[in-house]
Amino acid sequence: MQTDIDPRSLIGRKAYDRDGHKIGTVDEVYLDDATGVPEWAAVRTGLFSRDAFVPLEPSELAANGLHVPYERSLIKEAPDFGVGRHLSPEQELQLYRHYSIALPPAPHEDRDFGRLAGQDEA
Question: C-alpha angle 15/57/110, rounded to 5°?
């Protein structure tokens, strides 16, 4: 998905599955804690107003709405964590597994942070 899109502009847009079937309306957008890039959308589905989380990458934004490259049944079976709350790392992991998405690389740890240049390791 384009990363230069204001996440607030997604809220209220219709969402469609990979076959073009409407799955619901974007209710919330969740940003990656480290990068601030939109990562997940909560889509309000069906008559019972359940929210299904969908990945924004590799979804595409078109004039008529958000197109998610997954089947409607998989989307409707996605974990529902409720909206308006921060997603925990465990919840994100559940979503990655549900959609069979490769996990993002772990943040790089700088083991030499704070060590003066030119010092030998002990």
Answer: 150
The SS3 assignment for 73 reads helix
User: Whole-angstrom Cα distance, residue 13 to residue 92?
Assistant: 23
Taking alpha carbons only, the member of 14, 90, 110 closest to residue 59 is: 14
| Per-residue pLDDT at 75 | 94
| Contact in structure between 98 and 77 (CB atoms under 8 Å) | yes
- Identify the CA nearest to 92 among candidates 107, 74, 79: 79
**CA geometry: angle at 90 spanning 87 and 91, to 5°?**
45
Kindly state the DSSP code that residue 62 receives in the 8-state scheme. Answer: E
Helix or strand run (H / E) with residue 96:
helix 89-98
Q: Strand, helix or coil at 74?
A: helix
φ and ψ at residue 56, rounded to 5 degrees: -85, -15
- Distance separating alpha carbons of residues 3 and 36, to the nearest angstrom: 10
Query: What are the residue ranges in the chain where pLDDT is below 70?
Result: 1-5, 47, 105-122
CA distance 96 to 77: 13
